[in-house]
Structure formats: structure tokens, C-alpha cells
Amino acid sequence: MSVAGTIRRNRLRLGVLVVALVAALAVAVWRDVALTALLTTGFVERSIRAATPIALAAIGGLYAEKSGVFNIGLEGFMIFGAVNAVAVTWLVSGGTAGTVTQTDLWIGLVGAVVLSVLYTVVFAIILLRYEASQIVAGLAVWILGLGFGPFTAVVIWGSQSSPRVGRIDAVSVPGLAEIPFLGDVFFDTSPLVVLTLLLVAAAWVFLYRTRYGYWLQAAGENPEALDTAGVNVSRVRYAAVIFSGAMAGLGGAVLSVGLSSGFVGGGLTMVDGRGWIGIVAYLFGNYNPVGAFGAALLFGAADMFQIQLQTINVDVPATLTGLLPYVVVIIVLAAYGRTRMPARVGEPYESEN
Amino acid sequence: ADLSGGDDGLTVAIISSNAGFDDQAFNDMARDGLTRAAEEFDIEVNEIEETDIAQFGDTQAEAAEAGNDLIVLVGFQHTEALQENATEYSDTNWMLINDDVDEPNVAGYVWANHEMSYLAGVQAGTMTSEELNHAGSSNDPDNNQIGFVGGEEVPLIEAFERAYVAGAEWVDDSVEVATGYAGSFSDPSAAEDVAQSQYDAGADIIYHAAAASGPGVFDAAQANNRFAVGVDADQSITLEEYSDVIIGSAVKYIDQGTYDCAQATVNDNFDEVAGFNVVDLSQDGVDLVIGQEFEGSMPDVLSENLEAAKQGIVDGDIDVPCDATGC
Amino acid sequence: MSRQGTVRSALDRAADRMLTAGVVERLGIGIASVVLAFVVGLCIVAAAGYSPLIFLNEMLLGALGSQRGIALTLRESSLYILTGVAVAVAFRAGIFNIGVQGQFIVGGLSATMAILRLAPFLPTGAVGGVALIVLGSLVGIAVGGAYAALPGALKAYADANEIITTIMLNFIALGVVLYLISGPFQGEGRQEPRTDSLPEYVEFPSLLFETGSFSVVGLVVALASVAVAYVLLTRTRMGYDMVTSGKQASAALYSGVRAERTIIGTMTFSGMVAGLTGAVFSIMVLGGYVDPQGIHTYGFDAIAVSLLAANNPLGVVPAGVLFGGLSRGGSFIGITTDIPAQLVDGVIGLVILFVAAPELFRMAARRTGLGSERR
Amino acid sequence: MAGPDSRETVVRLDGITKRFGSVVANDGIDFELDDGTVHALVGENGSGKTTLMSVLYGLYDQDEGRIVVDGEPRTFDSPRDAIDAGIGMIHQHFQLVEPMTVLQNSILGHEPTTYGMVDEERARADIEAICSRYDFDVDEHLDTPVRDLDLGVQQRVEIVKSLYRGAEVLVLDEPTAVLTPQEVDRLFDLMGELRDQGTSLIFITHKLEEAMEIADRISVLRDGEKVGTIAAADATRERLAEMMVGREVLFDDEQRATETGEVVLEVDGLRVSDDRGLERVSGVDFDLRRGEIFGIAGVEGNGQAQLVQAVTGRRDVDDGRIRFQGEDMTDISRRDAIEAGIAYIPQDRLEDGLVLEDDLVRNALLGFQTLAPFVGEWFIDWDGVRDHADRIIDEYDVKPPDRTRLARSLSGGNQQKFVVGRELSHDPDLLVASHPTRGVDIGSIEFIHSQLLDMRDDGLPIVLVSSKLEEIQNLADRIAVMYEGEFVDTVRPDDVTEQDLGLLMTGHREAAGETPPAARDGGDLS
Ligand SMILES: Nc1ncnc2c1ncn2[C@@H]1O[C@H](COP(=O)(O)OP(=O)(O)OP(=O)(O)O)[C@@H](O)[C@H]1O
Ligand SMILES: Nc1ncnc2c1ncn2[C@@H]1O[C@H](COP(=O)(O)OP(=O)(O)OP(=O)(O)O)[C@@H](O)[C@H]1O
Ligand SMILES: [Mg+2]
Ligand SMILES: [Mg+2]
């Protein structure tokens, strides 16, 4: 995959990005806003931060879909991840807010991923063995998340939100953190942001450079081809679906103990639509992990941009500008509706044996 | 909520607003007052979480029919339904938070959100140009910039915002206030992004009115080694882990209100609380309290300013914009 | 063809259908998934330290134990049936309209606003009331339809995945409606995000039931929409086009179905039913319009209703009644016990999950030797 | 060719039985493949050929019987086991992952790795070695996504894939169905090369001449049972056909149209693009008279599908005109085309022609849901449709005769008969038949052909698209050969041989030089 090739293939996509950027700048200039006040290092940092949970879920969803399974339940799995991370942290710390250590938080994060794996195993069985409608079962996961996520909190804390348990500390790499801009963005930030960047890269390498990645792609495009090549399609799909749940769970956990410091279960919960944006992110990123991260970054930036506008007191109705990411999603989908899905997404595949 | 108990004593029910309990805002505070009352009197408290506005009318009726002596309704979304139920169930005592229905068996309570927010503005406006160092955090006395983070941009919260801004400008005309909304009352991460953006832009103190999103503002304060002002309760106590950055909280004593109503019901003198109670500064119903860790370390000018502002408000010399529940 | 012939053949067919394994099987799957969801739900109730017996008992008592309970069950049922029809029509045509909730919300607000704005021009009293109800409902239907036509057009012409666009439009509806009712449409002298109240004379007559928030008229509207949807899908050429598109899009195109038109038409019809639901809801229940975040998610639960009914409008009736009972029973549990309300939402999620996987029950049936051999 | 008895048996199948529910697809079949030979397997549709090979390849578990490879009994739980035992299979439908490159497809499931990464360079070297050994051209395309390749190349990719996995036994399931005669020759050369270098091949085909040409031995299946195995040298077309069908089969030529009427359909300078926007029909002209069958021959993918779709209203045209019965019909919608009396037997009955999950009643209405007598302005007269379905089932001998059956549950031949019946039942003014007998067995082919000829004799104009040259030659009154979106030539069937047509199909215009000029370019034959 050459850079030139990638650019050529995605020129429409990139074109819209450029247009969007120019439009945003035009608005800023027209409203006589100082661009430097808008596009700050902090803005970039926050955009990446906001993109992190979305990108994690997106990569999970992307893998599932590449393998031929549409996991529309990402939002639900994120909710479970968010609440479970705090729950596990709480239980290992002995059940008091004051005694939570960094280790407890990391255990909570890992614990949430492990629990997500357990949940997704059940989900994967229902999807793959019992051939459930993937759309409906995925929606059910969301509704289950909205119900049992806060319920878990009620059972543990007697309240649908957890106490504040603190969060995983930012790590500042001595020396590198001093580099202007880059230092702030990459070397003085949450380790989970860095972890996400590494996972994005790893996901790319795995998908395009290892045999398992080849199998994943084949499972979604032509499962018979994979089957007749002697690879168990089911196993590939199970792995992908479980991975997607684990990643969404990680995304939720990152949100609750990485970027925030506890679980909030009111309303749509603290996950607040990020899982849905994750799905759109990988669609827009054309099923490429790096592209998905780029799209997550775009949505994060759209959201952070409207916050920047608010901060410098450009008079925008926040209720409406808060909808910007959703509007962007629709525009993006309308412009790139014809994203080529893997050919066999959604179809159950039964090997005859 | 178990309606069966309380054979001899009275029963009190509290029906949540559509945000539900555990909102870290008025639902929780109203409930706290009743919990305290239950410890002191022979009453039984039924918590009814109702998040569906369309059900409010029927849930109120059901709670009344179940024989509750006092029913506390959280939030003005209950008003419409109560207008019918108050006459329908005239033997029941009703307490309505944030609004009023003109019936003898209804006690309407409104806390002066705007006044307490004004005081928060006074504190932030004063402290932004003062030298303040605490536990590694500091502000920038040379930079007159503060911030405000709301949950959703609805009239109720806009009243917080405008009064806060007015309070700060009363201290110092040149103060700059960045205001922003997280878009949700339950997304601390979004609130943190807003606060972070404001701290980046130079704000050193941020006041929030974001309910359960609020802790995100404190997270941002800690991350930036800046300060924040809490809301509703003394959040340097209720959110102790942030007490190092919470220099004060705009508080309203909703718990006292529910406690009073419960007590009045127990003592059979509900008439005394019935009617429209605008609980404001003049009745010590709202206040600005200094954060636990900052007590005693605040400069005198702050207490002077606060005193002057309070006096001005009570005397009517200061005209706080908006009113208790909107603009 | 004679009228008698039509009726007779309809009866014949109904009888035919009852005998086919399909209907029996679907009924079985529906019941089995509800039962299984309840079993799992009750286990969770018990595991969390609450009494499953009280849970069940209160649920039944709440749904059916009193005049009010029955009225509220029927009120919820009417809303579930209406939204269920909206979902079923779209799903039948192979279009996943997940946006019924959003269409329901914008339909409700626009019906409310239409009534409020038109009221000064019409006489007060019963005549004006009926006129306003009809006009308001028409506006609700139109706006709901338009709000659904948008993702329909995006799907038809830009190939945009309707699942995603409709979900996004739900979020957008929530925000925009909240903005409108806390600003431009906020009621005179109100502080809360709420419109003016509808005039007193704009209400459904209360027949049979006392409870103000339920009227038999609502139920009748729901049943009428079932009938319309049923006739549309089974007896008309547009319905044939829709169902064929849903089953096999390529064959539909081959048969001359205009895909774009059918997609947009289906979405529009689905959204119109959702908009009508919104109008019924605002007139019968709310008497105005409120913060949509404080409105129950009928549009999502309706997906379960529709699936339970195998996307058949007739089946939506029993499924809607079941959900009406669940919903009302769930609220009652919230009032009378300290079992958390989220649990009921969770149980609904479980019903949806299990309904989505009929194969689960088929395999179970085969394993246990229950049911017939054929699939 | 070496005598079979001097060879070792590499694969032996003993009494293989495979059932699908109540269908016995293979019933105690014995089969032997000798080392370094080609063994052809023939039989009607559904006789169990693919099933038997799928058992050998580990895709299905046999219910009874055993597989012996190189003298050792083996159980294959999955294709991987079969692959490990040196067996490769090229399926009827290619098993290639379209967006992946030829190289990636070739090594799928057997990727060489270095440090956990797929080592494409090593794979490339190995594949280039295979290509040069057997003189394949696949190595030119190693980095091309498979979806951009012709079917012929795709097939060679399949073969390379098997060889890369080390196959010593190669099963080819109907490999010639999609190829031109020239490509078939090329494939046979390849197969010969493979056999000479020691590979053993099993070759499934419906074309008896091919079996006799390339195979050493031929086995015949019927109704899931093996009828017998004979040496290719002893085989004749008639003998094989009789073994297959169980009775004598007459191979007779059809009658040409004697009288044709006025021009019904005129196509002028037609240009049509596909879904991806590529031009697939590049300026086609022809006209068609009443009572005439106009055949369009060509290798699939040369624009026939788009041409047919344009004529039947399924696809918009870029340029040019279509006139039907004197009226302009360019760019009409599919619905208008149906209402104008254009019947259409689609190429793919499973995709287009039938709604598989619907019963035959609903399927009987498919396409006619706006037409009297079944539908008024709004409502459908289902009683009328039911009677109509029964009529089709009866007249076209659809089995089982039960209108409540789902279309899916019918066998391929019966599905096709139902579609043909439905399309002809509305008294059309034009019939466009696209591969009307694809995948259909001899009996049903005879029936469908006789229906088409009868209708023609009644004056119906027919456009017949087929890649089966035999079919075209027997039925058509004129044949246009389509290559890369253009008609290379229009000829009379009696003036050309299959070889000539084959050459034309690959774009060699000169090949049919002896064609009389009058027959060219849509010339009038009446
Ligand atoms: N997966 C399956 N499930 C049920 N029945 C099957 C399945 N596969 C094949 N059959 C049935 O088994 C029989 C043999 O089919 P098979 O595909 O082996 O035939 P074939 O000889 O390859 O035919 P063709 O020439 O059409 O390819 C047929 O009756 C077919 O319907
Ligand atoms: N996948 C399947 N599931 C269920 N039944 C099947 C399946 N495939 C085939 N059948 C049934 O098996 C029977 C034989 O099918 P098959 O396709 O082999 O018929 P056939 O002998 O080839 O007939 P025709 O000559 O019409 O093609 C048919 O009755 C068909 O209904
Ligand atoms: Mg076959
Ligand atoms: Mg067949």
C-alpha cells in the first residue's frame, strides 16, 4: 500500500476533509475569530483524547465486520466496559474510594476487558452458532447495556453512578515531554492514549501483514474460499467478534478509569453515543485501522472544535452545536454511502462439518 | 420504595425528576434531607425513581393512593401533573421543588440558584486576581479569566451562567468569562474537555452547573493545577477527593427544605410550610461556602466582597439577573 | 370479485396459515424468548438480592390489578402497537428503521405546535377540539413521515446505511427538540423546557376509563393503524412491492419495483405512523410537549415488539399488549418496591436478544424432541 | 496414453454414501483414480458429482464408505486434511477472495511467514517457479486483485493455488462451463502438461465430447449411484448419454424459422455502462422480426448482461436508441418494459427470477403486480393469482405440483420451468431469454427448447443469450457474437462451425471470413 496509492484511492474522502477544513476556517475568519485561539495544542491533545475510546471501539467493530459479522452492539459493550472497569477497581481496592491505587485502576481496566470477553463469548455464540439477526442482537446489547450497566452500579454502590475512584495517571516522558507541541501531545499524556496509538498500528500490521489478517479478510469476503483453504471460518469469526467486544470494553474502560474517574449511569450513561460514532468511524475509515483512527480523530476534532468556539465565547447554541458530530456522520455517510462493505457481512456461514 | 411499612409512623414518598436519583444534584439533595428526617422522626421514606415525564401524573396519584402523608416532587416537570393531583388528593401533603402550585396542601420551594451563582461569580472574580497556592495548584493573578461549565443549555442552567458572570463582573468589570456546555448531565469526560479548553485559554477558576458531569471539571482542575467552584452541596465534602481544588461551593439547602416539610408533616403543621417558598439569601437558603481545605487561607478581600455582595442582594441594591429557575 | 368471495378467501387463508408450522413456530419462539428472558431476568433479580416472587407479583398486580393499572397498560399498549406497526412495516420491506423514536418525537412536537398555533383561529369547544386534533395529527404524521423520508432518500440515492443514519437522527431529534422547547417554542412564562399546554378542549373523550392519560380512542387509532398496515402489506401492490423488496431486493428490481421509490415510500409510511404515535402521545398523555429525554423510548422497544410479532402487523397487537403490560408493571415495581427500575429495561433487552435468535429455540426444540422435525 | 491397469491407484473411494435429509446424493459409490491419469466424471444435474468430490475434499462427512489415498484409509474432517493428503479441488464456483491479490489468494491458508509476518517475497518466488514449470501466465498478475481478472485467468489462479499447496490430485468441477473453446483448448493443454508431470486429475463435465477428448477413463453417475466406468477410448456420445439418462437420447437439429414478420425491435448505436460506470456495451445495432430467434453468443462478461438489461428496462443506456413496436423505448423503466409486453427470463433465477422465500403463488405474480387481471388500481386479487400459479405449474410440468411450496425448495430445473412458464404466460410481444437452460438437466432443456421454438413459430420474437454454443446454434435463426461490448459479427448458424464461433468470441473477426456478407451486421435474412 503506497502512500500515493492510498491518496489516489481516497481522493474523494480526502477532498471532503479539505473542504470541511477550509469551511471551518472560513467560518472562523468570517466571524473574525483568532485562529490561534481556536487551534491550540490543547485542542489537538483533546481531539486525540476524545478520539481514543471511539477509535478503540472502531477497531474492534472493524475487525468483526472484516470477518463478516456486523457488531452493532459496540455502544452496549462500551457501557459494560465502563462500569466493569470501575467495579473491578472498586472490588480489588477493598471497596473504598480513598484506597484506590494506580495498580487497582490498571487491574480494573484489564478486568473490564476480561469481562467483556466473557460477555462477547455469549454474544458470539448467539450470533454465530444460533445465527441471530446481527442487527437486532446488537441493538439488544445496547439496551442491555443501558439497563444492566447502571444496574450493576446500583447493586455495587447503591447508586447508578460510582463514587470517584480516580484515574490512570498521565505519564510524562522526561526530556521528550519538553518538545514543543509533540511533547505535549504524545509524551505528556495518558498512557492509554499512547496504548491506543500502538493498538491502531498493531491492528494495521496484524490485518495487512499477518496470515491471520488475511484469514480475517477472507472470512468476510468469501468464507467458502477460506473454508476450502482449510481454515476454520467459524473460529476466525469467533475470534474477531470476541476481539471486537474486548476492544469496545477497553474503550469503555478507558473512558471511565482512563479519561474520567468513575462511572456515570444516568441518561445514555457516560458512553453517550461514542460506540455509534465508532461504527461510523470505521465505515468512513474504509475498514482500515489507521483510517478508522483518522475518522475518530475527525469526530473528536469536530466536537472539540465546537467547544473551542464556546470557550472563546462565539455565541453558538450549545445544544445544537453538540449535535455536530452526528450531523457530520450523516453527511459523511451520504457522501461515502458506497463504502465497500466486505461482501458477506451479516450472512451466517455454516461449514458442512 | 416499599409502601407496606410504617404502621404507626408516617410515610413520605419522594418522586425523582426525570434525571433520576444519583444525579449528584437536586434529586440526591432532596433525598438526603428526607433520610436525615427519617433518622430523627418516626417516618418511613419511599424513594420512587420515575424518569418518564409522561408517567409523573399517574405515579403521583399512585403514591397518593398508597397513603403517603407527604410526597416530595423533584423538579418543575412535575408541576403540570400536580395541578390536577393536588386537588384530587387534597388530604396528601405535597412538596414541589423548583416550582409552585397554588393549593393549600402544596409547599412550593424554589432555591435562589441565581443568587448563589452570583456569589460563585464573586468568589471566582475575586480570586482570579489574587495570589492563591494550594497543594501544588495555583492561579494566575495577572490574568483575569474564569470559566463556567454547564450540563445542558437549558433556561435553568442559563440562569446559573448569567448570574455567575454578573457576579464576577461586579467584582471586576474587566474579568473575562469563558462559558461552555458539556451537552449532557452525565458525561464527565465531555465536561472535562470543556473545562480543559477553558483552562487552556487562561481561566484559572471554573464554576460548574453540570450535575453528574461536574466531576469532569474537577478532574480538569487537578490536571491543570487550577481551581474550581462546586455547586448545590459543599462539594469539597461530598466529593472529598477533589477538595484540594474546590475553593468554594455555591450551595442551596434543598435537604433542609425537604427536612422541614417532613418535620412539618410529622408535627401536623404543614400550613406553615405550605405556599410558595422562595428560599434565597435573605433566609439563608443559599450561600457560598469556602472549600474545606481553603477555610482560613482565603484573603480578606474575598470575605469582604462576599459580604458586600450578599448585603447588596438582600437589600436589593444588586440586581441579580435571571431568577431562580431561568431567565 | 364479490365481496363475499373476498371474505371467504381471507378466512380460508387465515385458517391455512394457522395450520402452517410457521405461525405456530413463531408463536412458540415468541413465548419461549419472553419466558427465557424472564427466567434470566429473575435470576439476576435474585442474584442481586431481591425477591423474584415479589418482582413477578408486583408486575402482574401493577399491570392488571386495578382499573388504573389496566388503563395504563392499555395506554402503553396503544403506544407500543403504534410504534410496533411503524417498525414492522419498515422491517418487512427490509429496511431497518431504527429511527422510530426520533420520528415519534418530532411528530409529537410538531403536532403540539400545530395545535397551539392553530387554536386561536378555530372555535373553542368540542368542534374546535376535534378539528385541532385532526389537524395536529395530520401535521404530526407529515413531519414524522418527512423525518423518516430523509434517511430513506439518503439510502435510496446515496446508499447511506439507514441503521446508522436513523440512529444519528434520533440523537439529533433529541437535541433539536430540546433546543426548540427551551427556546423558540418554550411556553409562555415557563421556566422548564416545555411548550404551552394544549387547550383543555383538545383531548380525547374519556370512555370506559377514568384515567385522564388514557382514552379508548388511542387504542382504536392503534388498531386502525394495524388494519391499514395489514391491508397495505398483504393486499395492495405497493405492499407486494415492499415485501418483495424486503425479501429479495434483486428479484424486486427484476419485477419492476422502483427501488428508490419503494425505499422512500416505506420509510415515509413508517415515519408517518411514528409521527401519528407522537401526536396521540402528546394529545392523550402529555397535553403539550416536554424534554424528549424524559420520554420513554417506545421507538426502541418497538423493535422488540415488531420482532416478537415476526414483523407482522397483526402480531404486533398481542406483542404490543405484552410490552404494555411489562412497561406498566415495571413502573409499578419502581413505585412499590425498591427493585431498581433499570432491571426492567434489562429484561426488555433480554427479550430482544432472544427474539433475535430463533435458531436458539429451534435447536433446543430439536434437542429435546419438542416440536416438529421440519424447519 | 498409458493403459489404466499399469498405473497405481492414488485415490479410491469405497461405497461412499451421503444423504441430505431425505435426499440421497451419493448412494454407495465406488471410484478409483489412477496415478498420472485424467478421470472424467459425468452425469445429469443433481446426480451427485459435486457431492462426491466434496466428500473427497473433506467438505462433507460421508455417512458411509471410506476414502483411501495412496493405499491408506483416511478420514478428512476438513479440507485442510485433504490438502495435507495432497488433494486439491477447483470448485464450480471459484473460491477466490475478490479484493485480495492473486498472490494473496494463491497462498491463502498456507502463507509462509517470517517473524510472524507473511513473507510475500518467498511466496512470489515459489509461485513463479510453479508458473514457469507448467508454463502458466498467472505470474503476470500476481499483484492484481482477483476481481479485475477474466474468468479464465481466475481459473488458472485456482489451479496455481492447489499446486502451491502441493496437490498431487486435482479435482476440477465443471471447469469448462465458463470458457471459450479456445480457452478450453488452453486448459486441456495445461491438464495434459500436469498429467505428464505426474499429477492425477478428476474432471467433472456435462460436455461428453470433452470427457472423451481429455480423459483416460470416464465414470457416469445417475441419481446418486454410479452407473459404470469405461475407458475413454471405448466411449461414444450416444453410449455415455444413455448411461447418464437411462434411456436413449436423440440428438437432432431444430427447425429454423421459415417465415419472419415485420421488425419489432430496433436497437441503434447502444452504449451501456455497468454499476461501476465502465462502458460494457459499446455501440450495438440490430433489429429483430416477428417469429425470429436472434441469438447472442459470447464469453460471459462481454456486455451481454448489460445489453439484455438495457432492452428489458433494467438498466439505463448511455447512448443510442431502442425502438419497440415502432415506439421509442430507450431508457424506459423495467416496469414500463413489462407493461409493454417484454418478457424476460433472467440469467440468474435464484437472484432475480424468483423470490426464494416466497411460495409459488407470490412468485407467480412477480413482475406482473401492476397488470390486469390480477391487480386493479390498488388491490391484488389473490384468488386469481392462485389459479394462475396452478396453471403455470400444470402447463409447464413443475414438480412437485404444489403452489404452496417455497421457491427455494424446488430443484433447479423446476425453478427454471416455473420462471419460463410465468414469463410466457402473459402473452408477451417480445421475449428476452438469458441463459434459459443454465444448470438445467437434459430433460428440462429439451422441454424449454421446445417451448421456445413453439412460441417462435407462433410469431413471438425472441432474443436468446447463451454461452452454450450448441444451444445457440440449434435454436437461433441468426447469431450475433459479442466481444468486448461490440458485435464482432452476425452470422447464420448453418454457415459456421463451433470453432468459428469460438474464434469470433475471442474477438477474431477474420476467422469467420467465409460468412456471406448478407448475414453480417444485423443484415436481413428473410
Ligand atoms: N447442501 C445440500 N443440502 C441439501 N441437498 C443437497 C446439498 N448439496 C447437494 N444436495 C443435493 O444432492 C444431490 C446431488 O447434488 P450435487 O451437487 O452433487 O449434484 P451434481 O451432480 O454436482 O449436479 P450439477 O451437475 O448440477 O452440478 C442433489 O439432489 C442436490 O439437490
Ligand atoms: N438445499 C436444499 N434443501 C432442501 N431441499 C433441497 C435442497 N436442494 C435440493 N433439494 C430438494 O432435493 C430434490 C432434488 O433436487 P435437485 O436439484 O437435485 O433436483 P434435480 O434432480 O437436479 O432436478 P432438476 O432436473 O429439476 O434440476 C428437490 O426436490 C429439491 O426440492
Ligand atoms: Mg455440481
Ligand atoms: Mg438440479
Write up this protein.
Chain A has 353 residues and is mainly α. Chain A is built from 16 helices and 2 strands. In chain A, strands 1-2 form a two-stranded antiparallel sheet. Chain B is an alpha/beta fold and 327 residues long. Chain B is built from 10 helices and 14 strands. In chain B, the strands form 3 sheets. In chain B, strands 2-1-3-4-5-13 form a 6-stranded parallel sheet, sandwiched between helices. In chain B, strands 9-8-10-11-12-14 form a 6-stranded mixed sheet, with helices on both faces. In chain B, strands 6-7 form a two-stranded antiparallel ribbon. In chain B, β10, α7 (215-224) and β11 form a beta-alpha-beta unit. The longest helix of chain B has 17 residues, at 155-171. Chain B is elongated, with a radius of gyration of 20 Å. Chain C contains 15 helices and no strands. The longest helix of chain C has 33 residues, at 126-158. Chain D has helices at residues 49-56, 79-84, 102-107, 120-134, 151-164, 181-196, 208-214, 237-245, 304-311, 334-339, 349-353, 360-365, 382-395, 412-424, 442-457, 469-475, 498-505; strands at residues 9-20, 23-34, 38-43, 64-69, 72-74, 87-90, 113-114, 117-118, 169-173, 200-204, 217-222, 225-231, 263-273, 279-289, 293-297, 319-324, 327-328, 342-345, 430-434, 462-466, 478-483, 486-491. In chain D, a hairpin with a 2-residue loop joins β11 (217-222) and β12. Chain D is globular and about 70 Å long. Chains in contact: A-B, A-C, A-D, B-C, C-D. The interface between A and C is large, with 47 and 48 residues. Bound molecules: adenosine-5'-triphosphate (2 copies) and magnesium ion (2 copies). One adenosine-5'-triphosphate is lined by residues 20, 23, 25, 43, 45-51, 439 of chain D.
Poorly predicted tracts of residues of chain B: 1-7
- Percent helix among the residues of chain B? 25-40%
* Number of continuous helical runs of chain D: 17
Physical arrangement of strands within the biggest beta sheet of chain B: 2-1-3-4-5-13
Number of extended strands of chain D = 22
Described by the principal axes of the CA atoms, the overall outline of chain D is globular
Radius of gyration of chain B: 20 Å
The biggest sheet of chain B, with number of strands, parallel, antiparallel or mixed sense and barrel status, is: 6 strands, parallel
Radius of gyration based on Cα positions of chain D: 25 Å
Structural class of chain B, please? alpha/beta
Number of alpha- plus pi-helical segments of chain B: 10
The largest pleated sheet of chain D is described as:
6 strands, mixed
Please state roughly what percent of the residues of chain D sit in beta strands, choosing from under 5%, 5-15%, 15-25%, 25-35%, 35-45% or over 45%: 15-25%
Multimeric organization = heterotetramer
Report the span from N to C terminus of chain B: 36 Å
One letter per element, helices H and strands E, the order of chain B comes to EHEHEHEEHEEEHEHEHEHEHEEH
Shape of chain B: elongated
Largest interface: A-C, 47 and 48 residues
